[in-house]
Amino acid sequence: MKYIVVLADGMADYPVQELQGRTPLQAASTPTIDYLARFGETGMVKTIPDGMPPGSDTANLAVMGYDPKVYYSGRSPFEAISIGLKLAASDVVFRCNVVTLSADEPYAEKVMLDHSADEISTEEARALIETANKNLRTANMTFYPGVSYRHILVWNNAPFDFVLTPPHDIINKKIHEYLPGGPYQDIFLAMMQKSSTFLKDHPVNKKREERGLKPANSIWLWGEGKKPALSSFSEKYGLKGSVISAVDLIKGIGICAGLDSIDVEGVTGNYHTNYEGKAQAALQALKEGQDFVYIHLEGPDECGHRYEIENKVKAIEEIDKRIIKPIIEGMGALNEDFKIMVLPDHPTPLCLRTHTSEAVPFLIYQSNDSKKETQRVYDEFKAGDSGLYFAEGYLLMDYFLKG
To answer: Which of 262, 251, 257, 212 lies closest to 239, judged by CA?
Structure first.
C-alpha cells in the first residue's frame, strides 16, 4: 500500500458574498475530489490545539502525526534547517520577512501593505537580505536568505523572551500596536527601522517600482524558536517517505522527521507553481520505493492572505486538476494499491486575511476498498456529516495509515 497526502494550505474558508454565499472550496470545480468523496470517507479534524497560534507550523506538525503541544518549539527553526543551517541548542531563530510598508509616515505609524512584497522573487530578495546582513549583522546575529519573502535571522546564545507578531496577521493595519515587545524590543525595533532607511532606495526596489510592483522596504522579525527534536516518521509508522513543498517551513518539518525533501524545479509559494512537476515527483518517489509522500500546496493560503477571491478558487481547481487527478491516474498506471488524503492545514478566510483555528475537512480514499457510491460531499460543512471527528489533530495520521 502507498500513502499520499495532498495538503492544500489554507483551503478552508467562510462563505463569501461574491461567490453567492459559498466558500471557495464549494465554488471550485473539483471533479476528481468529488469522485473521491463519493467513494471514500470524509470528516473533520482540529489541527490547531486550543491555546496555540493558528499557524502552518503547528497545523502541519499535527497533520504529519506530531502533537504540537509536545513537539512545537517555534516556526523558524524548521525553516532554518530546510536551508541547511546547523543550529546549536542555545541559538534562537527568527523568521525575517521582507515586507511592504506605507512610505511617508514615521516608522511606527506606517501600515502593513503586504507581508510578501508582491511575492518578491527569490533572486531579488536575496540581494536585499545580503544588504540587510551587511548593515545589521553583529557578532551574534546573522541573516540568511531563503525563498521569496521568507528569510532567517539566527541569534547565537540568545535570550528567549520576545513578543512578535506575524506580518500576515496585520495586513492594512498600522504597525504601531504590533511592533516588537518584551525586554529586547528596542534591539529588534532598531533593526527594523534601520532596514527601512537602506532598503527603500535599494536598486532592486527602484526597479520593482518601475515595473509597478511593491517595494520590499523593510524587514519584519517574528516566529522565534529553538532547535526542534522530532521523532523519526519511519520509526513511528514503519514507512519510508518524502515531502514535496516550495515552502521552507514544510520542508524543514519533513527533514526533522527524517523524510526526504524533494526539490522540484519551478515550484513557488503561490498559485502559479509547477503542479505537474510536483505530481510527477510524487509518483516517481513512490515508483522508486517510497511508501509515503506529503505534497504541500501553498497557493490557497497566499490567496486568502491577499484577498484574491477568484485566485483562491482557481488554486483549488488547479490542485484538483493538476495534482490529484494525475496522481490518481498515475497510481492506476503503476498498478499500485494506494490511499490518498486531501485536506487543508487550517482555514485562511478571505474576509480575515489570516489563519483561524477551526476544524477543517478531510477526505480519505482507498483504491482497493469496494465502497458503494454515496452522495457524500467534501466541503467545510458537509464533511462532518459522517460523524468522524478528530479533536486531536495528530491522531488523524494514525487513522489514515493504520485505520
So the answer is: 257
